[in-house]
């Protein structure tokens, strides 16, 4: 079974004190500590358990900059077989629909039996 799991790099709520930027329209991101979205970790763990039972491989995918590669490395250390980093300056500022379209386009290139997000 081929499983694709979408993962995201997010600010770690346990490690950060959140403050608004000077414009008041976003978080001040200068000193934030980032980690993998907790729910994405659960999805990767579930995918790994499925593959352990029935065979196949787990691929993790994320959209982001070069710093998002750390997320893929962490998930691969958990047991995922492959990682895909989708990074392009054109993706900057994409909304939810844009990110979904980017992920869909990449997912269609593979032959996945299950996609978790």
Brief description of this entry?
With 117 residues, the protein is of the alpha/beta class.
- Which range does the strand content fall in? 15-25%
SSE class = alpha/beta
- The mean pLDDT is 88
Q: How helical, in percent, are the residues? A: 25-40%
CATH topology: Rossmann fold
Task: Give a structural overview.
There is one protein chain. With 117 residues, the chain is an alpha/beta fold. It has one domain (2-9, 35-116): Rossmann fold. The chain has helices spanning 38-54, 69-78, 96-107; strands spanning 2-6, 9-11, 34-36, 57-63, 82-86, 114-116. Strands 5-4-1-6 form a four-stranded parallel β-sheet, with helices on both faces. The chain has a two-stranded antiparallel ribbon with strand order 2-3. The longest helix is centred in the middle third of the chain and has 17 residues, at 38-54. The two termini are 17 Å apart. The mean pLDDT is 88.
Give the SSE layout.
Layout (H helix, E strand, L loop, with lengths): L1 E5 L2 E3 L22 E3 L1 H17 L2 E7 L5 H10 L3 E5 L9 H12 L6 E3 L1
Parallel strand pairs: 1-4, 1-6, 4-5
Antiparallel strand pairs: 2-3
What brief labels describe this structure?
four-stranded parallel β-sheet; 22% strand; globular; 117 residues; alpha/beta; 6 strands; Rossmann fold
